[in-house]
Amino acid sequence: MSVHDPSLSNPDLAPTTLEQRKWGFYNYTALWFSMCMEITTYQLASSLIAKGMDWKQALGTVLLGNLIVLVPMLLNAHAGAKYGIPFPVFIRAPFGVRGANIAALLRAVVACGWFGIQSWIGGTAIHAMLAVIWPGAASNQGILWACFLGFWLLNMVVVWRGVDSIRRLQAFGAPFMFVMAAALLIWVRMKAGSFGEMLSTPSGFHSTSEFLAVFFPSLTAMVGYWATLALNIPDFTRYSKSQSAQSWGQAFGLPVAMVIYTFVGIAVTSASVVLFGRPIWNPIELIGAFHQPVVAFVALIAILIATLNVNIGANVVSPSNDFSNLYPRLISFRTGGLITGFLGLAMCPWKLLATPDAYIFGWLVGYSGLLGPVAGIMVVDYFLIRKTELDVNSLYHRDGIYYYTKGVNPTAMIALVLGVAIALIGVFVPTLHFLYDYAWFVGFFVAGGLYLVMMRATASAVLAQPEENGEEVA
Which of 307, 354, 341, 366 is nearest to 116 (CA)? Predict the structure, then answer.
């Protein structure tokens, strides 16, 4: 059983070797600073201001949501660092070697949507840069679409160069974006007069009940924002030098980067109320409102680099592996990346970013109800059922302990379907809409709890300890 089944493996899905594990504390910190310091993070915070929160309420909501999602992220990261396996292979343990495709595709479809959103942002940034040089381009929709497709193509070029180019890109992008975020904050502070003026916009809520009605779905959206990476984080931690490198790098990088950059978004959006009389949640629109070409051009270049950074790291690595997992003999990482790109175009990203409501309460909360159940099943299976022990060879074979019933674990599928159904039922049944407001949490605990009960009830063979385990990196 040492030779992997070619229908379940290829070089991109195979466990990483010791020589491939080059990522240290800085790489994981840089990964999170690169992925956090970009436009959708900014809009995540600025949309809370647009919905009526003051800066303290918005920052607290973002911080709490990210501390919550950090927990399943670190738990799921463990297997990647220990065994060197990517997300679509890791989830074969709970879902089966064939059933894993269902869970992987849920993650992949969400990533395709994000890829389209980031490509649209990058395209609009390029269009705005052209408008600074050539004002006539501002009203030309054909040029806008050409910029969008041009940025999409740039992403495809980076994908074609492979995973190591992503590490190098983010190592450069992280410190650059930190400097640019600080520069934007200082520049707007000078325009507003003082930080006191910038942060003077009061809360728009007149009672605690009004605030909570927005807070709870917003908190779910904050968790949902990184619910994607909470699943496929093994795609990155499989390259870690050690468990401590990835765990400390992430525990520092994610909350610190999110607080810093969301504060920029909150402060600048609050300043827009002072300067223009209304909250402008789109930074590209805000930069243009100042009518200063040099500043706009520099800022939009920073936006472009940030968007490319996060789009490749967060929205290509996982779906490329997920699509490759469907048919390893024909679909490589590169081919999976191309599939991701075309599906991203098909998901009409311009509609997902149309308004703060569409972005937070439609897109973020909605897909969190799909991913929460997968995360719950993964955490329960690896820590409570398997006790962190996996038979790596069986993950790549049809005659191993993870084949279950014709390659599918019925228990995981039942838990997944019920978890998703209960999390999203509020969309269709108004009296149960409160379940939708907590979609990720409902899905996580319902699916995870059902899976734990059903697996322990059917113990015996499926819970047998593997005879041969992978090796953990020292």
Answer: 341
d(CA 42, CA 298): 17
d(CA 222, CA 58): 11
Residue labelled with tokens 């870690």:
240
What 8-state DSSP symbol labels residue 405? B
Question: Is 266 or 116 the better-scoring residue by pLDDT?
Answer: 116
Mean pLDDT, range 251-268, rounded to an integer: 85
Q: What is d(CA 160, CA 136) in angstroms, rounded to the nearest whole number?
A: 34
Q: What is the DSSP letter of 37?
A: S
**Dist. CA 469–CA 389, nearest whole Å:** 7
Q: Which of 381, 429, 382, 368 is nearest to 107 (CA)?
A: 368
Residues ≥6 apart with Cβ < 8 Å to 380: 94, 448, 449, 451, 452, 455
Q: Is the pLDDT of residue 468 over 50?
A: no
Please report the pLDDT score of residue 96 as a whole number.
Answer: 93
Within 10 angstroms of residue 206's Cβ, the number of other Cβ atoms is: 9
> What is the spatial distance between Cα 405 and Cα 403, in angstroms, rounded to a whole number?
6
Residue 405 β-bridge partners = 408
Are the C-beta atoms of 397 and 1 separated by less than 8 Å? yes
pLDDT in tens, 330-363: 777 778 878 888 888 888 777 776 676 777 777 7
Task: Return d(Cα 355, Cα 362) in angstroms, integer.
Answer: 10
**pLDDT for res 50:** 78
Indicate the CATH number for domain 18-371. 1.10.4160.10
Average pLDDT value for residue range 364-387: 92
Nearest to 283 by CA among 35, 30, 44, 34: 44
Q: How distant, in Å, are the alpha carbons of 135, 153, 157, 198, 325 from that of 300?
A: 15, 18, 21, 22, 37
Closest CA to 318 of 373, 374, 358: 374
Question: Of residues 100 and 5, which shows the higher confidence score?
Answer: 100
| Contact partners, residue 51, CB within 8 Å, separation at least 6 | 204, 214, 218, 356, 360
What is the rounded CA–CA span in Å between residue 162 and residue 284? 30
Q: How far apart are CA 21 and CA 473, in angstroms?
A: 9
Phi-psi region of 406 (alpha: psi -120 to 50; beta: other; left: phi over 0): left
Residue in the block written with tokens 């800085």? 26
Q: How many angstroms separate the CA atoms of 220 and 47, rounded?
A: 14
| b/e 285-311 (16+ beta carbons within 10 angstroms → b) | ebbbeeeeeeebebbbebbbbbbbbbb
SS3 content of the chain, % helix, strand, coil (to 5): 75, 0, 25
